[in-house]
Amino acid sequence: MKRLVVIAALVGAAPALADEGMWTYNNFPAAKVKEKYGFQPDQQWLDKLRLGAVRLAGGCSASFVSPDGLVMTNHHCARGCIEQLSTAKQDYLANGFYAKTQAEEKQCPAMEVNQLVEITDVTEQLNKATASLTGKQYSDTLKAEMSKVEKACSNGDDKVRCDLVTLYQGGKYNLYKYRRFQDVRLVFAPEHAIAFFGGDPDNFEFPRYDLDVTFVRVYQDKQPVKTPDYFKWSEGGAKENDLTFVAGNPGRTSRALTIAELEYTRDVSLPKTLMYLSELRGMLTEFQKRGPEQKRISSNLLFGVENGLKASKGRHEALLDKKFFASKVAAEQELRKKVDANPELKKKYAAAWDEIAKAEAQLLTIREELNFIEQGNGLSSSLFHIAKALVRAGDELPKDNGQRLREFNDANQPALKAQLFSPAPIYPELEIARLTYGLTKMREELGAKHPFVKKVLGKESPEQVATRVVKGTKLKDPKARQALWDGGKKAVDASKDPMVQLALLTDPDSRAIRKKFEDEVESVIKKNSELVAKAKFDIYGTSQYPDATFSPRVSFGSVKGYTDNGQQVAPITQMSGTFEHATGQDPYALPKSWLKSEKVITGTTPMNFVTTNDIIGGNSGSPVVNKNQEVVGLVFDGNIQSLGGEYGFDESVNRTVAVHSEAIIEALQKIYGATRVLEELRPGSTKVPPVKANPAG
């Protein structure tokens, strides 16, 4: 991370002329794009981009690529669906999937697609409701008002999703209204071996040779949805120096955090996260050695853990860079100096940074209990999370909407119920292993004498508790979950299911530590972060982008290589390089379909490429489009330098990594014979028969 540099945006001023920023659709710097690239998007252009780009509720991005509801995203974004549809006899992760007819498209057990249709600024309404309030009163009022706004927006329609998005750390609030699609069906997925070619060693690296793509389709009333706002396919794809736009949903950036928050992240949060994930990776690696079925059912979880581990390591290295961190300190000091120099601003804002620092100190005292009792590090089991949701639903649903925990608001219930009642398989052996690990870590971190640890374990070992509750529960059956949901609190309280009883036993402690966090930490940080944001607006203006919040954004850039350790990295790789890098051994073992097709593939076809677009986790699956809004690529990663992008952006080395649009076409035609998908992407292209067809299994 030595190449991280300080740029104007880090201190809240208008950014310099660089390809920086994950911009909202109602505050896009079109003039800046014109100044640098000679093209100025107008509002109509931005609106079409917004409607063509969609969000996967689980944490990824995607896009419509045909008028009949065909959606393109990453293979790793659809891994959950692919794994859930697989069995020991038909492993779609290993063998790939292609629906040759519409009737063969398989419904994903728990996937949701959101299309942003409207943005409303509700800042004034929220500020008026919380004016002069602090602490618990501020927090409760803010949550109640947010729930009120979201409920009025969705108006009880399950096909509508409304999210109130906090921007600029509370400086602004926007209401995002989405079309919600919950019937999503798998159309095409390549084999895992090519979708994640190079595995963890190549993750966040470049050059790359991955076909990280999957196609799904959205349905309503059992018919494919008509989607007139979609992206057409480009003829030649991305070329060096081309202007590119990425429309996606970046998950989170921390570029506007205070130094107190960054210090806590650097010194406490990230080191603890790295230790936890490292040990979890070790446990899962050993679990996979039990046999091929154990490897199959845990591969998606291990993929996520390894990805999170590498990303956290990169972020930690960025914050450990002394020069970079010193620049963040200097930026904050400059802002505070300007505030202190103005008596009016000083009165309104000067105390905000110190209040945040106090809240971070308070968080340090409750962090372990919060993580292991409430936030899932201790009771780390899908079945337990289901039981916990059922227990809380019995208490929360009878309350007024604005007084509930936010995950139980009317606006959030369709997604919650889709997860709760999903027919996706749950594997007891993996559940026991996960819960045993979590309980062991909980005892280690909180101490064997901690009241909560004694309450949960009693005289049993972590493995004994995990085995007893997993083997004894009926919650593996969606019908059993539905019955408890429908029966409400009375049915839940009367249940003898051991997993439900564990959730009932632990819920009072879990709620208590959550309440302490919300009242004494979260509310203080939210209120004072809002003041810091307003101080920046007063001093620097509003011509800046907010931190990412897993809400729709657009970035601009160009296809461009970079220098790494003195070596020039070319911006585009070729399909022939995929075979040159294959060793026959994981993670560089190509699937049989590729090995059989090597001679018919045009080796000079572009495979992967990099751009200067500003992205972060959550952008996976985002389309890369040109100024004509034609697909030229598919985002699937960033380079290792981009991991520091959570805290700052350096155009000289931060890169988006994407699958080239021509590689997707070449593979669909010559390797997989996926003519039905090809015809949707490029109508008329299948009139000439594909050279070769090796459909995925």
TrEMBL record:
<keyword id="KW-0732">Signal</keyword>
<keyword id="KW-0645">Protease</keyword>
<dbReference type="GO" id="GO:0008239">
    <property type="term" value="F:dipeptidyl-peptidase activity"/>
</dbReference>
<keyword id="KW-0720">Serine protease</keyword>
<dbReference type="GO" id="GO:0070009">
    <property type="term" value="F:serine-type aminopeptidase activity"/>
</dbReference>
<dbReference type="InterPro" id="IPR009003">
    <property type="entry name" value="Peptidase_S1_PA"/>
</dbReference>
<feature type="signal peptide">
    <location>
        <begin position="1"/>
        <end position="18"/>
    </location>
</feature>
<comment type="function">
    <text>Catalyzes the removal of dipeptides from the N-terminus of oligopeptides.</text>
</comment>
<dbReference type="InterPro" id="IPR019500">
    <property type="entry name" value="Pep_S46"/>
</dbReference>
<protein>
    <recommendedName>
        <fullName>Dipeptidyl-peptidase</fullName>
        <ecNumber>3.4.14.-</ecNumber>
    </recommendedName>
</protein>
<keyword id="KW-0031">Aminopeptidase</keyword>
<dbReference type="GO" id="GO:0043171">
    <property type="term" value="P:peptide catabolic process"/>
</dbReference>
<dbReference type="InterPro" id="IPR043504">
    <property type="entry name" value="Peptidase_S1_PA_chymotrypsin"/>
</dbReference>
<dbReference type="GO" id="GO:0006508">
    <property type="term" value="P:proteolysis"/>
</dbReference>
<comment type="similarity">
    <text>Belongs to the peptidase S46 family.</text>
</comment>
<keyword id="KW-0378">Hydrolase</keyword>
<dbReference type="Pfam" id="PF10459">
    <property type="entry name" value="Peptidase_S46"/>
</dbReference>
